[in-house]
């Protein structure tokens, strides 16, 4: 029952704590839980109320620290020697927590002062914004271009600050949320500690738990102070962001007033150029001074190295001196390089300001814009690359500085002389970091100027009229047209431009077109007039086409002045690649050349290859196209004609011998049959008379007397042959009908072998409406239903088993009869 009561009390306490925290969050103040009385032997300082001022809270914390220290002294004086470390540890932890609480309250005081300053500043900038909106600015128009430039730079800076303030507000909100979560955890821990003190009856344990409760309460005060601190930080960040936004609005209002009435005068340009010239003079003086310092450092470095090599004195000190002087020498050398680069940037800035002035006065040409744009783009790329290099160098130097600081603090026994040289080296490293930081700031200034010039160039491009647009586009086309792709080395170097490639491709296309027309003229008109065979003419047409193409390609290369020596290496590489990676292509290519020269197969020939029959239509360099009797085009690799047996029916002669086999019935007049067959061939108009057709009596077949009609035709296609053979069969069939000659067909004799004689009965004719079931039964059993009924009346009807056996015997007899039909008749 006791444990159940404790559990219920814990639930109620947790609910009270949760509601208290929620109420505190909604009200914006710190979460305070009701202070429950805790029976402890030691005094517990109550948590400060949120209504107390910061000085009062600081005074209470100071008093708590005093009491804790006094209590610590009393415990150490009264406790036994073995318990002193433990008591000292507990009291020391309490004092440290109180000190941490005091520091947080001090930070709250500082943030409160900062809040008051920000509120005053916000009111001031709001008044300034209202003044600008109502009264304008102090300067009178026309406004200076330098003023406009300054306002634009300030607006860019303030916009960046406003964005940074927004990010800071988001971060402060996250910190406040984490602080509130930590406060909830501390409050729950305090509740658990109170319950532990209440539920424990042992005095010694209870005293220990009371001390833990005290520390937990102080931890809760610290968490509450952190929440208040984070809330103040969030408020300050919000005020800073609001101030930045108001300043942005002020600058926008000023720019809106200044921009329409700004003129870029010669005085503005002279003022800016004078500033740049002064900056150039300062850089030159700085370079001279650093060079003078470097000579001194070089002498000091030489002296330090001499001392180190002599081996006299403290070796570590000499090594540290050499390292310090080395670092100083490196720093001065790098500073000179950075200053020289800044000097170059100043001179480029002078050029950019002159360009901006000419753009403002519209004293430029399209070519000037293009040149300025190209120079500006190159400068921006260089600045970006330089910035990345500087960032990497800064990170490395900061790491070196951190390592050097650890080396200085590492060993307390290090001699003071060595430490002095390490500090000198550290100072040189810091000077180097500062020089790179200043160089980065100058880089940002130059980049901003280059970006402004780039924007002004783009604005001028948008304002171009139609003629200027056309001129600009034509200049762009010319720049691409004359772009150099390849430049051959040597004294007689020749550049291959985009125009060269386009001209070459154009000439090659024209050459291919002319080559095709010339080859067609040669193969289709000229050669046939001289009696050249169609296949040979097609082969010569293909060969002449490739020869013309090769000639036109060489002429194109010569016209555009590309030496063939440039293709020497490419030709060797292509030969190796073709040899290893394109063996099949080369095989077919060479086979095509052999076929065109040797002509084993020509265009128009009727060929049969690997079961494929058709007419050759074209012979290419890689493949040959064949049209089948089904009017399908088949693409056959050229190598197949040389690697396989090819039946060319029309290679040397188009006359072929065909045959039509015919079988007539036994007893037919054989001489008459031969005469009619030969007459059919002679009557057909497409069968040649020389050699004349003839008939062979080939043998006595199983069912017929076999004859073959042989005849000769001039064939061009397979369909033509099949049509002639079909015509002959029609004529032979008609002649045999008129002469009474029967064309034989297969004959079979049926032999039935049964175990007993078959019973044959004469049945009367059946009506058409007789059911099919009765007919099927009669065929199976040999009896009609009427006869079976009569036999049943007489008592002579067979049993179902007997009828089934009789049906099986009849089926076996029919099967034997069918088998005998497959045997020759005797």
Notes on the protein architecture:
The protein is an alpha+beta fold. The protein has 20 helices and twelve strands. The strands form four sheets. A five-stranded antiparallel beta sheet has the order 8-7-6-5-9. The longest helix is centred in the first third of the chain and has 56 residues, at 203-258. The chain is elongated, with a radius of gyration of 57 Å.
Specify the helix fraction band: over 70%
Instruction: List how many beta strands DSSP finds.
Output: 12
Distance between the termini: 120 Å
The count of helical stretches stands at 20
Q: Helix- and strand-based class?
A: alpha+beta
Question: How big is the Rg?
Answer: 57 Å
Low-confidence segments? 1-9, 21-50, 768-781, 793-797, 817-826
Q: Report the portion of residues in β strands.
A: 5-15%
The largest sheet, given as strand count, sense and whether it forms a barrel, is:
5 strands, antiparallel
- Coarse morphology: elongated
**Sheet with the most strands: spatial strand order:** 8-7-6-5-9
């Amino acid at each position: 029952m006791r444990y159940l009561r404790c559990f219920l009390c814990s639930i109620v306490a947790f609910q009270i704590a949760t509601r208290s925290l929620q109420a505190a969050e909604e009200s914006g103040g710190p979460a305070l839980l009701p202070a429950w009385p805790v029976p402890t032997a030691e005094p517990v300082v109550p948590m400060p109320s949120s209504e107390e001022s910061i000085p009062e809270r600081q005074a209470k914390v100071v008093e708590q620290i005093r009491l804790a220290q006094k209590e610590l002294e009393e415990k150490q004086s009264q406790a036994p020697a073995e318990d002193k470390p433990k008591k000292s540890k507990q009291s020391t932890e309490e004092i440290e927590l109180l000190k941490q609480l005091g520091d947080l309250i001090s930070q709250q005081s500082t943030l409160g002062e900062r809040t008051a300053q920000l509120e005053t500043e916000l009111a001031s900038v709001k008044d300034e914004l209202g003044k600008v909106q109502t009264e304008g600015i102090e300067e009178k128009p026309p406004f200076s271009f330098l003023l406009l430039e300054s306002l634009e730079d300030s607006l860019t800076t303030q916009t960046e600050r406003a964005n940074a303030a927004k990010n800071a507000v988001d971060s402060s909100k996250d910190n406040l949320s984490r602080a509130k979560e930590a406060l909830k955890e501390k409050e729950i821990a305090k509740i658990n500690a109170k319950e532990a003190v209440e539920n424990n009856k042992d005095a010694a344990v209870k005293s220990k738990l009371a001390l833990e409760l005290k520390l937990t309460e102080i931890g809760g005060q610290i968490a509450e102070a952190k929440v208040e601190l984070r809330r103040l930080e969030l408020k300050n960040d919000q005020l800073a962001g609001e101030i930045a936004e108001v300043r942005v609005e002020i600058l926008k209002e000023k720019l809106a007033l200044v921009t329409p009435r700004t003129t870029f005068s010669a005085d503005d340009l002279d003022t800016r150029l004078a500033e740049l010239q002064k900056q150039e003079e300062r850089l030159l003086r700085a370079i001279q001074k650093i060079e003078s310092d470097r000579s001194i450092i070089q002498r000091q470095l030489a002296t330090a190295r001499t001392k180190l090599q002599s081996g006299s004195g403290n070796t570590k000190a000499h090594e540290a001196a050499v390292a310090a002087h080395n670092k100083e020498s490196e720093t001065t050398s790098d500073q000179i390089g950075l200053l020289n680069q800044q000097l170059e940037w100043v001179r480029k800035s002078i050029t950019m300001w002159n360009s901006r002035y000419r753009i403002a006065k519209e004293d430029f040409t399209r070519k000037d814009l293009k040149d300025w744009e190209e120079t500006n783009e190159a400068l921006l790329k260089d600045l970006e690359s330089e910035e990345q290099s500087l960032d990497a160098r800064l990170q490395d130097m900061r790491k070196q500085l951190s390592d050097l600081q650890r080396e200085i603090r590492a060993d307390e026994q290090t001699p003071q002389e060595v430490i002095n040289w390490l500090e000198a080296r550290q100072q040189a490293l810091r000077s180097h970091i500062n020089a790179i930081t200043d160089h980065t700031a100058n880089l940002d200034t130059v980049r901003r100027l280059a970006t402004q010039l780039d924007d002004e160039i783009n604005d001028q491009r948008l304002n171009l009229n139609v003629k200027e647009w056309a001129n600009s586009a034509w200049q762009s086309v010319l720049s691409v047209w004359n772009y150099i792709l390849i430049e051959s080395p040597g004294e007689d170097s020749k550049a291959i431009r985009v125009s060269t490639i386009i001209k070459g491709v154009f000439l090659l296309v024209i050459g291919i077109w002319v080559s095709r027309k010339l080859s067609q003229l040669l193969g289709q008109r000229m050669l046939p007039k001289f009696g050249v065979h169609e296949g040979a003419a097609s082969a010569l047409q293909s060969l002449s086409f490739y020869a013309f193409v090769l000639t036109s390609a060489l002429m194109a290369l010569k016209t555009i002045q590309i030496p063939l020596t440039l293709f020497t290496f490419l030709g060797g590489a292509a030969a190796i690649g073709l040899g290893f990676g394109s063996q099949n292509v080369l095989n077919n290519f060479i086979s095509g050349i052999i076929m065109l020269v040797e002509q084993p197969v020509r265009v128009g020939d009727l060929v049969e290859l690997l079961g494929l029959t058709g007419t050759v239509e074209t012979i290419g360099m890689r493949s040959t196209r064949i049209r089948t009797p089904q009017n399908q085009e088949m693409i056959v690799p050229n190598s197949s004609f040389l690697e396989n047996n090819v039946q060319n029916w029309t290679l040397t002669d188009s006359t072929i011998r065909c045959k039509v086999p015919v079988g007539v019935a036994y007893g037919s007049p054989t001489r008459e049959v031969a005469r009619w067959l030969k007459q059919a061939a002679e009557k057909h108009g497409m069968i040649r008379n020389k050699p004349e057709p003839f008939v062979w009596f080939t043998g006595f077949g199983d069912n017929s007397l076999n004859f073959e009609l042989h005849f000769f035709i001039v064939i061009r296609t397979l369909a033509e042959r099949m049509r002639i053979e079909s015509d002959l069969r029609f004529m032979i069939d008609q002649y045999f009908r008129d002469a009474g000659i029967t064309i034989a067909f297969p004959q079979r004799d049926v032999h039935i072998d049964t175990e007993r004689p078959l019973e044959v009965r004469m049945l009367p004719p059946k009506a058409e409406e007789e059911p099919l079931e009765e007919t099927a039964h009669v065929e199976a059993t040999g009896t009609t239903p009427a006869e079976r009924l009569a036999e049943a009346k007489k008592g002579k009807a067979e049993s179902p088993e007997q009828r089934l056996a009789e049906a099986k015997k009849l089926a076996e007899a029919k099967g034997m009869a069918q088998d005998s039909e497959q045997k020759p008749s005797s």
